[in-house]
Structure formats: C-alpha cells, structure tokens
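Before any further analysis, we paired sequence with structure tokens, yielding the entry below:
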Amino acid sequence: MLCYPFLAAAGVNQYAHGAGLVSGYLLLVAVSVCYLGIVVAAMRSAWRVHWWLVALMTVLVLLLAPLAHENVLILAAVIVPCAAARVGARTAAVLVVLGAAVCVVVPMTVPGWSTGGSWYYAVAVVFTTLLVLAFSRTATANQQLREARAEVARLASEAERNRIARDLHDLLGHSLTAITVKSALARKLDPAAARAEMESVEQLARQALSDVRAAVSGYQDVTLAGELARSRELLRAAGVAADLPTACDVVPAQRRELFGWVVREGVTNVVRHARAGRCTVELTASTVEVSDDGVGGPVGAGSGLDGLRARVSDVGGVLTAGPAGPRGWLLRVEVAA
C-alpha cells in the first residue's frame, strides 16, 4: 500500500507550490511512516499503538487534502484497510462502504476538485480492504494453528512422559520384583538349585532390558492410536468438532503406522485450510478416511499430500483426495487386503 502515497504525490505536485509543495511531501512521508508503524504494531499485537497511528494518519490525510485535492482520496485505501483489519466483519463492511462513498461524494461537493477519478478511488478502497482482510485472516489462522500445534506438542510430550513412566512401571515392576525375590532365594539354596534360580534371574533381566527398549522405541514411532489422540487435541484447540474412533483394533497392526500418517496429514489440512465445523475419521481394515464440512477446493500443488501419496504407493495403496459434495473435503487411502 506504500504505492498510494506516490499517487497522492501527483496531486501535491499539481496543486501545491512553494512552501505548500514541501509541506505536502512532508505530510506524505509522515503518512508512509505511520503506515509502517501500523504494520509493526500489528506484528507485535500492540493494538493501542495501532489505533493511535491510524488516528494520526487520518489527521495527516485531512491536513493534506487542501494540497493534493481529489488525489488525497486514494489514501482512503490505506486508512480503511488498516482500521477494518481490527474490527468485526459487519463493522469492516460499514467502513468500506463509508470509505467508498467518501471517494465518490466528496469531489462532487468540494469546488475545484475533479470527479474523474472518484470511482477509481472507491474501487481501490474496496479491493485493497478485501485483500488486507484476507491476508489478516490467513495470518491470524496460521498464528492460531502454530499456537495450537505448540500446545498439542507440549501436551503430547507430557502425555508421552507419563506413558513412558507408566509403561516402565508396568513392564519392569513385575520383572524387578521377581529378580529381587529369586536373588534372595538363591542365597539360601544349595549350589545346584541356586544356579537354576540365577539362570532364571538372567532371563528376567534380559526380558526387562528388551521391555525398556520397546518402550523407548515406541516413544519415537508414529502410531495410529497416538495420532488419533493428538488429532483430537488439535481439533479441540482449533474449535473443530471431532468425530474420531476411540479405538483402532479394526486395523491390522502392519497398517497402523501408515494410517497414522494419513490421519496426521488429513487433520492438519482440515485445521489449516478447511475452515470446517466438524472433522470425521473413519477406519476399516483396509481404508482410512478423513473428511470435513469445510470449504473444499482443488488439490494444491506441492502440498504435503505428495509425501503421503509416496508412502501409500510404497505399500501398493491408493490415495484419493478432493472436494466432497455438496461441501467439504475427503482424504481416503485404501490398501489392498
């Protein structure tokens, strides 16, 4: 939007002279600085500063009006989007209508102002505001997604620590107790019986070591059950109703890791792109489906589906992804039985 002050500068150059010309250029520089300050304030969520800068920029534009005449109205395409980005949809619509109306009506009522560019200025206000709103909503959604994923990662990490502690307790509790009892018993027996007991202790120790390795490797694996749990948390954090299976016993063990990747990719795309109210995951022995009731749309090039499609292809499966009528999106993977 920094191109708009340059367009307004044409009016200053045409209508102002001498000191007025210098003042006009200085005011345009100040307007540009205010806009940059608004961008920085928005990035830092300093909304009080944001509104003060919007107000200051409006005052500067009003001071510039006698020097740039009708050309100053192009700066409404800077003020209106900056204000509309921080209000609700209804208020933003009112601001857009008012901004466009000012661009059309004011040149008709001020003597000496040309009406030739009025509709151009009005269109600039409308389309610039729509562009800024779309960018703002996307940035907000991405920020919320990052926060939700960070929260899910924290919860998942905590849950995994608790799982490992529980698994180690369950896996090792019996083994270590048996080792302790058998070791104490071996001290009281004759050498032949004690040797047999110590061989049993050795077997228990090896089993305990194998159990620990299994618990640690499970911590790093992608599992269908784990992805369903993480997806439920992610959808909850994103405000999307989750219709997910509570168990995955119907899926053969050799397919659960692949189906876990499918659930991860599908649910992430629902949260990031779909603007959905509900997400559904359905499992059978040979298929997994992730669907939503969002906006749908074509398959994007270079998406994360490419990597998933390669995983599915490696096991001879088929991946289908696309809009699901009348609205929504469907991701389906089928693996031959």
Observations:
- The mean pLDDT is 84.
